[in-house]
Amino acid sequence: MKPWIIGLVLGLTATTMVAAQQAGAPPAGAPGARPAGAGGPPRGYRPPNITNMPGTDSGSGMPCDMLTTYGEKQPAGWPAVPYGKNAPPRTDAPFKLPDYVTPAPAGANSTLGAAGPLTGKDSEGAKARGLVIPDVPELPWKFVEQPEAPRGTPGWANTNSVQMLKSGNLIVTQRNAMFQIMEYTQDGRLIRAIDPNLVARPHGMRLDKDDNIWITDQACNSVVKIDTTGKVLLRIGTSGKTGIWDEAKGERLFSEPTDIGFGPNGDVYVSNGHGNGDPRVFRFDKNGKYITSWDMKREGKGQTIIHTIAVNKKGEVFVGDRELHQIKVYDSNGKYLRMMQLDNLICGLYIDSKDQLWVATGMDGMVLRVGWDGKVLGRIGKLGWGANEFGEAHYMTISPDGKTMWVTDTVNNNVKKLVLGS
Fold it and tell me: What pTM was estimated for this model as a whole?
């Protein structure tokens, strides 16, 4: 199908959904739409979005051969959107919830429905996974607010990562093709959105010491580096192709890359293998030149999903296996050093400015503070839909002073802000 036809179809779809939202009801036939006279949506209803089914960690954006590079002439039907022009700052007008969204109880701040215990399939799924709540203190972090989704859109679409710029502003990525990469102030005001369709399905996103934005594109099997104007500086991998990386043959292929980490010298580490095709860690120099890689396959039963990676000040590489609940530690050349066995899913690793290790536990619904010996020291939140609950705590960031935290939730479709209490 010609690009301009695809653009027309997506444009009409977006217009229809936005108009329906502004009218105060979900689009006809959309998940969560209710018949006339119905009392309200079921618990856990999430606002619809264009590129993903609500409440799922699924979907992708553009076809890989149509991804754009900022500043280049775009195919017919896909004109370049000037940086910062497609997402004006939030107005001061009070925001009114659509009438199909159940307000949270007084004192809570969730717009996704009242807090409460999981029921039905949600509860069954947690039980089937053997959800373990660590017997550790609940840390004094308070949920205070969350940034709004871009105005004129039906809501967040699988918010997958958040990181902080040197300025203190936040970069947020989500899986809505037209608003993938956005900059927010710390109080939740949208400043601008970067040119759309730079990646198809963002998974992990990190900032290097120069504030460049690195994103793993799980759908198109590549890693993209852009500056804060949205200009593409580097692509690693072969977009649209998956397989085994063979540097000698010139076959530079990822298999669903997930996350990025940076060594003290600027080297770039990429975790690979969300789909279990080739679980591996890659090391590149800051210019994307391949240095080495090491295999993360597991012998015997059990699925391996290498979901996250982080590097400490010593240059040790921490690799999180989501399904095996393991954090494996290596030196910069892939020499195995040690392993931490946890009881929870390991979705996103984060090392804060105080050199403390944190783990976002995905669909286990918590953020854990973990010692360097692997001992869980404290926890935040729980599984659910409420103001202090997560559907899937995916990735996170903490302010340099250690007093404010943001967590992206790909299932509840939001970015939660927490502040440290006494």
Answer: 0.77
